[in-house]
Specification:
The chain has 141 residues and is α+β, with helices and mostly antiparallel strands. Helix content is 27%, strand content 40%.
Length: 141
């Protein structure tokens, strides 16, 4: 009987959990295009996904250093900094309040938010429409 109640309780928790927690995916939109971001397993990524569960977040992003698009979130997230070498598709939190999508390599102390899988530098740039400022929207829908 006790095992049955535990199983029922687990099913209730899983059914009521937000979809992003089960799938571990969020989306980034640019114009009419979107890409999946596989979330990292850390408190920062979870906090970002939780913030997105209240609504989409649009960020103006600009190129920096010929290797990344960067934009201020307008709020702080917890940091889980570690020494990271980034690659195309990495989604990083910088200083707790800046979201960065890499299209090339860089090494520094960052917090990993997630990864856009199987993307090259050129594919990331094409998604953004090349170099220059762009507005993107992050979502868990």
């Amino acid at each position: 009987m006790r095992k049955r109640l535990c199983l029922i309780g687990l099913l209730v928790v899983l059914q009521s959990a937000p979809a992003f927690a089960q799938e571990n995916i969020m989306k980034v939109y640019c114009g009419n295009k979107s890409l999946d971001i596989e979330l990292a397993d850390n408190p920062s990524a979870k906090a970002f996904a939780e913030k997105l569960s209240s609504g989409d977040i649009t960020v103006k992003m600009s190129d920096y250093g010929n290797f990344e698009k960067t934009g201020k979130l307008g709020f702080d997230l917890p940091r889980s900094d570690e020494n990271i070498t980034t690659y195309a598709g990495d989604v990083i939190l910088y200083l707790g309040n800046t979201i960065v999508i890499y299209y090339d390599t860089n090494s520094w102390n960052f917090t990993r938010i997630g990864k856009i899988p199987n993307m090259t530098r050129q594919q990331i740039l094409d998604f953004f429409g090349g170099y220059g400022d762009v507005e993107v929207t992050f979502s868990v829908k």
